């Protein structure tokens, strides 16, 4: 594809300001849209053998099951070309004054803001989420850039005197070229959560979105070009995990990997990089997060909040957020009331096709359906869900799962143990605080936990015993971008956010200067 053809395609994509216009564009094109890698500051023609690929992957619209575009499955030699572009850009970018880097990132955030609705439309089409949810996520992508563009302006390093003998200080420098790999549940939100700090701290990168949801990453290339990000500083390549992702993380030219995705993939990345001890690894992996509902949180004055927070934590984005609370534990004295009120609330507020979207892929939909079949076989009680959804002709091939509420699921059932990552929640009673903590911690994962109680002492007593990197009390997914974000146990290693992202993307040396 010549660059003028790619420009035309991009301008068609940018011109869609409603979901219907975007769908018409997909339907009207005789050949499916084909995404192109963005390397060295430009989109790469598919027939460029050095930087692209002969293999292609088709991506489908979750709400209809129709093909929407193809993407190159970038082969190792082309991955290497993108890494070399990032490496060539590193010396200059890493020395660029932080005020200048900040201004460029600020421009990226402004351009995202100006194109907010277009990004939301394509994210909703590509991922299956509702348009409202997509808008929330684009707003966070905007914040990712604005936050780190200002964070770097205020960094300071303190010097210390040691016993009057030596003056010491920490000197940080950008760690090098990063592989930034993101999943399909919140594509733009999570990819920019990596790109923004990486560039802010002076590193360069090769970013690879999920092969399931590559569309908004494709549009991002154009934003970086328009914002004046120098060529090679950020390269975006497409492809699957086995071919493209593995070649990217394993390359000896890559100094660090920031990855969000499934735990098994995190383990594979650790193996692929095990012999490269100095490679920075930040892995944000799966979760099977508990929501603990204490009886005091069901008193009339706060009952509505308790139900609302538990429901949001379970079903936001179809349950496709690694932080979702998919195991709800309820104190026995309020168990029946909770199940009744929670079910009524979810039935009213989480309505398939209105406030609940389609799940991301056919493969993922089949996986969730297998868990629902298992629940039926194991004679779980379905308070909601379990039946095939009512769909019109256009939606019949889409990946739709009704919000599902299960009780009577055994502790050792795979439904209670595995990360289902869909709109499926279990509710289980507990007798006392100690049992609640023990049930919450009885998981290989340790990403997040939600604690619903009005007892201030319990908030700390229980909260501090939960094996989770993030504990939310009477709220969920409240985020301040400087706080450490990441998981314990098999939910990952490393923390990102503010100065924790600085630890990921910089190397530190301590200088000792004689004081005399
Ligand atoms: N944030 C989270 O916690 C997420 C958890 N998951 C969980 O993982 C399960 C599997 O989902 P998948 O689509 O397979 O997610 P995944 O972990 O395979 O995909 C995430 C990203 O990793 C890449 N990738 C895969 N294998 C790789 C490798 N060997 N080296 C480098 N990159 C690689 C993929 O291409 C994608 O960009 C889900 O059902 C869900 O339970 C999935 C996505 C996000
Ligand atoms: O950074 C956040 O606010 C949320 C992150 C969510 C994930 O990493 C996920 O769902 O994979």
UniProtKB/TrEMBL annotation:
UniProt keywords, alphabetically: NAD, Oxidoreductase
Active-site residues, Swiss-Prot/TrEMBL: 284
Pfam families: Aldedh (PF00171)
Keyword Endoplasmic reticulum: no
InterPro entries reported for this sequence: Ald_DH/histidinol_DH, Ald_DH_C, Ald_DH_CS_CYS, Ald_DH_CS_GLU, Ald_DH_N, Aldehyde_DH_dom
Domain of life from the UniProt record: Eukaryota
Keyword ATP-binding: no
Similarity comment: Belongs to the aldehyde dehydrogenase family.
Annotated ranges, domain Aldehyde dehydrogenase: 52-510
Protein name according to UniProt: Aldehyde dehydrogenase
């Amino acid at each position: 594809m010549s660059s003028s053809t790619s420009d035309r395609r991009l301008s068609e994509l940018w011109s869609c300001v409603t979901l219907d216009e975007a769908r018409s564009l997909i339907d009207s094109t005789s050949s499916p849209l084909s995404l192109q890698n963005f390397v060295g500051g430009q989109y790469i023609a598919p027939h460029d053998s050095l930087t692209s690929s002969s293999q292609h992957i088709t991506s489908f619209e979750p709400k209809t099951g129709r093909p929407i575009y193809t993407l190159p499955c970038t082969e190792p030699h082309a991955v290497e070309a993108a890494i070399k572009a990032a490496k060539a850009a590193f010396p200059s970018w890493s020395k660029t004054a932080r005020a200048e880097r900040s201004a460029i990132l600020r421009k990226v955030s402004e351009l995202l803001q100006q194109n907010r609705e277009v990004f939301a439309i394509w994210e909703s089409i590509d991922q299956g989420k509702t348009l409202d949810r997509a808008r929330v996520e684009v707003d966070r992508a905007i914040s990712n850039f604005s936050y780190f563009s200002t964070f770097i302006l205020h960094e300071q390093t303190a010097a210390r005197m040691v016993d009057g003998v030596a003056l010491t200080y920490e000197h940080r420098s950008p760690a090098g070229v990063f592989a930034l790999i993101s999943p399909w549940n919140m594509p733009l939100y999570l990819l920019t959560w990596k790109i923004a700090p990486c560039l802010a701290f002076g590193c360069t990168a090769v970013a690879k979105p999920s092969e399931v949801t590559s569309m908004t990453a494709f549009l991002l290339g154009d934003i970086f070009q328009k914002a004046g990000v120098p060529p090679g500083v950020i390269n975006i390549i497409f492809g699957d995990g086995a071919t493209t992702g593995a070649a990217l993380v394993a390359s000896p030219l890559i100094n660090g990997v920031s990855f969000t995705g499934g735990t098994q993939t995190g383990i594979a990345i650790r193996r692929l990089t095990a012999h490269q001890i100095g490679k920075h690894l930040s892995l944000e992996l799966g979760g099977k997060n508990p929501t603990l509902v204490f009886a005091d949180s069901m008193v009339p004055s706060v009952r509505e909040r308790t139900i609302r927070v538990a429901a949001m934590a379970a079903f936001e984005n179809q349950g496709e957020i690694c932080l979702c609370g998919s195991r709800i534990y309820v104190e026995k004295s309020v168990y029946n009331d909770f199940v009744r009120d929670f079910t009524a609330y979810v039935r009213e507020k989480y309505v398939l096709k209105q406030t609940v979207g389609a799940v991301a892929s056919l493969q993922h939909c089949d996986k969730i359906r297998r868990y629902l079949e298992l629940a039926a076989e194991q004679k779980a009680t379905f308070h909601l869900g379990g039946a095939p959804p009512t769909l019109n002709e256009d939606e019949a091939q889409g990946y739709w799962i009704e919000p599902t509420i299960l009780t009577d699921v055994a502790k050792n059932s795979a439904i209670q143990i595995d990360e289902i990552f869909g709109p499926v929640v279990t509710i289980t009673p507990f007798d006392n605080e100690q049992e609640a903590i023990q049930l919450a911690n009885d998981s290989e994962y340790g990403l997040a936990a939600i604690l619903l109680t009005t007892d201030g002492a319990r908030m700390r007593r229980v909260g501090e015993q939960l094996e989770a990197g993030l504990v939310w009390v009477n709220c969920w997914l409240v985020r301040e971008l400087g706080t450490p974000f990441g998981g314990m146990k098999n939910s990952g290693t490393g923390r990102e956010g503010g100065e924790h992202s600085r630890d990921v993307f910089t190397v530190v040396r301590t200088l000792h200067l004689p004081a005399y």
